Request: fold
Amino acid sequence: MAARVRALETILTQKGLVDAAAIDVIVDTYEHKIGPRNGARVVAKAWSDPAYADWLRKDATAAIASLGFTGRQGEHMQAAFNTPDTHNLVVCTLCSCYPWAVLGLPPVWYKAPPYRSRAVIDPRGVLAEFGLTLAAETKIRVWDSTAELRYLVVPERPAGTEGWSEEKLAGLVTRDSMIGTGLALAPEAA
Ligand SMILES: [Co+2]
Reply:
């Protein structure tokens, strides 16, 4: 695969269709500058600011863009808020659509056929394999991403974090908690 990618890049560069330096900048941006820290800031703000949470619920694209997170693969966003009785899980059954602007590049398992098929067939079993066992009465809602619309799970705010700053709260928000394959960390983990 690596050799094929190199060959393809060489041909495209030789034909003048792509600029290798531009590709390097894009890869570097998504590998190092954009990542789940962006999404964590969105979640921490929603936990801290009820008006922001309301905005995020009604128009996630605008609420997220107001923090400067927009662009490729994040043009149209919807937030899925976990509640005590409903847990949200995101998948792309067709391919690997993922909200790059808030979560960076998708993990390998997100793109793998077993996750993509089983997340919709047996979400509870998949979550258990991630170490997340939900109460039997907790409903699981699975969201299937598309090229047009991507989802950000807003996990529940952990108990015992009253009075925490947004920055400190953001430290509890993991990538997996924003996909739905995990929960926000407990305060002791911060
Ligand atoms: Co897709």
